[in-house]
Design goal:
Layout lengths: L16 E6 L1 H9 L14 E3 L6 H13 L3 E7 H6 L1 H6 L6 E5 L12 H9 L7
Keywords: Hydrogen ion transport, Ion transport, Transport
Protein name: V-type proton ATPase subunit F
Pfam families: ATP-synt_F (PF01990)
């Protein structure tokens, strides 16, 4: 994807991180894949492990902080957690960081709940695919 200037990257040549919010198994899998980082400025991690003791306010604050971090390009969030903060997820209307809802071990993916797919359905009609 390019912006107004031909050949200029969406990220203006700067690399971006993935951020992950999910259960322990999901986040651990991504960390083992090498996505774990700490912000150079704040020393805060780019992930949050959510369990039954995690407060909703902690999830909301972490999500909001990921939205404002310049070093994050994509936020991966387990769909069952996205449901808990649906207002915040649906309220995000910028392309960066992109928010992708993913399944988890205990909670299968439900396309009808995915905010991106719901928006995409509203952009097209059945006639567009004929």
């Amino acid at each position: 994807m390019t912006s107004g200037n031909a050949g200029q990257s969406l990220f203006a040549g700067k690399s971006k991180l993935l951020a992950v919010i999910g259960d322990e198994d999901t986040v651990t899998g991504f960390l083992l894949g090498g996505i774990g980082e700490h912000s150079a400025k704040t020393r805060k991690p780019n992930f949050l492990i959510v369990d039954k003791t995690t407060k909703l306010t902690d999830i909301e604050e972490t999500f909001k902080s990921f939205l404002t971090r310049e070093d994050i390009g994509i936020i991966l969030i387990s769909q069952f957690i996205a449901e808990q903060i649906r207002g915040l997820v649906d309220g995000h209307d910028k392309s960066v960081p992109a928010i992708l809802e993913i399944p988890s071990k205990e909670h299968p993916y439900d396309a009808s709940k995915d905010s991106i797919l719901r928006r995409a359905r509203g952009m097209f009609s059945a006639d567009d695919f004929k």
